[in-house]
Amino acid sequence: MRFGPVPVEEALGATLAHSMQLGRQRLKKGIVLSEPDLAALSAAGVAQVTVARLDPNDVAEDAAAAMLAEALVPDPRAAGVQIGRAFTGRVNLHATRPGLLRLDADAVHALNRIDPAITLATLTPLTRVRPRMLVGTVKIISYAVPGCALQAACAAVDLRKSKSGGFSVLPVQRRRAGLILTEVPGQKPSLSVKGRAAVEARLHALGMELAECRIVAHESAAIAAALPELAGDLVLILTGSATSDLRDTAPEGVRAAGGHVARFGMPVDPGNLLFTADLNGRPVIGLPGCARSLALNGADWVLERIACGLEVSDDDIAEMGVGGLLKEIPIRPQPREG
User: Fold this and answer.
1) Per-residue pLDDT tens over the stretch 199-234
2) Cα distance between residue 283 and residue 263, in whole Å
């Protein structure tokens, strides 16, 4: 691409680099100059204009952006991603369903290293998204890019080379959750009401349903009795008294019901006091007390992944520590900062 000032008479078919006001007429930046445009410029006494002129192997910004977006999302319906219309070298990508954004970060890095004028910006991998949410944007910064660079960028995000399935919204697979709330003696009923409402709001944000909610005494035996027949594809347990040990009331209740407790504790704050378990193939999440607030906490990250059918291993939870120091919330009884 050639960029710079040229005499008006040589600007036919070139792209105008800067908007120009010609009396009552305005020529907008980015238009391809036509014969009437050149006549208007000459009539206004303009001798030269700054333009971009494409070389034979260049691809114009809108066409380049559209090609790259289609390479990134070759099957929008299957990916759960809508490709927007190219405009000023930009194509926006929106989610069409709730779930987690899945992308190959290495492929995005590779694309963004090819040519500074070819860019892709995305949300962080495994960000929870909702329908119509902006999840990525392709932007061609210059008026055109070399065809060879564009081909390399498209190849960088080729699904056949991707280890993670490319760029898509991983849909929710476990649509129904059961909830057990425990109450300690003397506990105000409002605490259970608040806990149920917060959990239900989280589920609805994922397009999930609260299949059943049972309130039981804060005793291992009561939890064990409620677990086997609780409805739902996964089980959530929110206790009236926080779980503080791998052998505390709720984990022991899961074991008494025949389940296996996989992990207690996570390097995310708020959200440290979470445990994960399995009960006859059904995932169980022991929620930390902060789950009664709608503020983001570590339980959200675990719930979202499990709901979308992902396995959450010890390593997965351990790696959540980077970025796991979440925003302080005013209701914390022991704020990190005085």
Assistant:
1) 999 999 999 999 999 999 999 999 999 999 999 999
2) 12
- Cβ–Cβ < 8 Å for 81, 95: yes
pLDDT at 338 over 50: no
| CA 64 – CA 87 distance, rounded (Å) | 11
Is there a contact between 200 and 232 (Cβ–Cβ < 8 Å)?
A: no
> DSSP code of 163?
S
**pLDDT tens digits for range 251-306:** 999 999 999 999 999 999 999 999 999 999 999 999 999 999 999 999 999 999 99
pTM of the model: 0.88
Question: Could you tell me where the beta strands, DSSP code E, fall in the chain?
Answer: 2-7, 15-16, 20-22, 25-27, 48-53, 58-60, 81-83, 90-95, 99-102, 118-122, 128-129, 134-140, 144-146, 168-171, 176-183, 209-217, 234-238, 260-264, 275-279, 282-287
Rounded Cα distance between 76 and 72, Å, is 9
- 263 touches 246 (CB < 8 A): no
